[in-house]
Amino acid sequence: EDQVTQSPEALRLQEGESSSLNCSYTVSGLRGLFWYRQDPGKGPEFLFTLYSAGEEKEKERLKATLTKKESFLHITAPKPEDSATYLCAVQAVNNNDMRFGAGTRLTVKP
Amino acid sequence: DTAVSQTPKYLVTQMGNDKSIKCEQNLGHDTMYWYKQDSKKFLKIMFSYNNKELIINETVPNRFSPKSPDKAHLNLHINSLELGDSAVYFCASSHTTGVGGKLFFGSGTQLSVL
């Protein structure tokens, strides 16, 4: 069965303190791995799709990377507005469904 | 203009009642979804419709019935509500089934069953 595990569950950073979020996955043939951002009281907002090991995507202070077993979301010099829950999801080649992890709740203090 | 809108935002009701949540998307997408987010924040798919046809129907109680009158709307009707149905329900849409994974989510409906 496809599984997605995110760590840490919660992460508190000072503004400017770079760090990484981890998403470990088990899937029978990866179609894609996805990162979403979710703010309190809102629906998840799409950030990135990664399709194959070695691929990287960047957007402002965020960079997502992918290996055959895990993905990292690197946050460089975060700002308080980066505070949110970051969700990882995987989609298998034989499945239309996306399986989500429980998320990492990021808090960036000024 | 809200891309995916769902109503109501909050729904508080008694056990045993029947309720509906409505969802509409103005993105021209052909696939729509219902997800449930429980208290531990796990998002789990419930249903998926492509051009008004049901394509994903996860193991959910048959008290939950989706209805898609057209490809821009996917409503969720819940019969005989139970305490365990309390959660946040998200509607989402995407351009093409299973491609790209770029889902556009509504802002959620927080259902509380008392």
What can you tell me about this protein's structure?
The complex is a heterodimer of chains A (110) and B (114). Chain A is mostly beta strands and 110 residues long. Chain A has strands spanning 3-7, 10-14, 19-26, 30-38, 45-50, 56-59, 62-66, 70-75, 84-92, 99-100, 104-109. Chain B has strands at 4-7, 10-13, 19-25, 31-37, 43-50, 53-57, 64-70, 73-78, 87-94, 104-105, 109-113. In chain B, strands 2, 4, 5, 6, 9, 10 and 11 form a 7-stranded mixed sheet that branches. In chain B, strands 1-3-8-7 form a 4-stranded antiparallel sheet, with no helix packed on it. In chain B, a hairpin with a 2-residue loop joins strand 5 and strand 6. The A-B interface holds A 31-32, 34, 36, 41-46, 49, 85, 87, 89, 91, 95-98, 100, 102-103 and B 4, 40-45, 48, 55-56, 58, 90, 92, 97-98, 100-108.
Average pLDDT of chain A, to the nearest integer? 94
From the spread of the alpha carbons, the general shape of chain A counts as globular
Pick out the low-confidence regions of chain B. none
String of helices and strands of chain B: EEEEEEEEEEE
Sheet having the most strands of chain A: 6 strands, mixed
Number of helices of chain B: 0
Query: Helical proportion of chain A?
Result: under 10%
Largest interface comes to:
A-B, 22 and 24 residues
Overall pLDDT score of chain B: 90
What is the alpha-carbon Rg of chain A in Å? 13 Å
Number of strands of chain A: 11
Give the low-confidence spans of chain A.
Answer: none
Report the span from N to C terminus of chain B. 34 Å
Radius of gyration of chain B: 13 Å
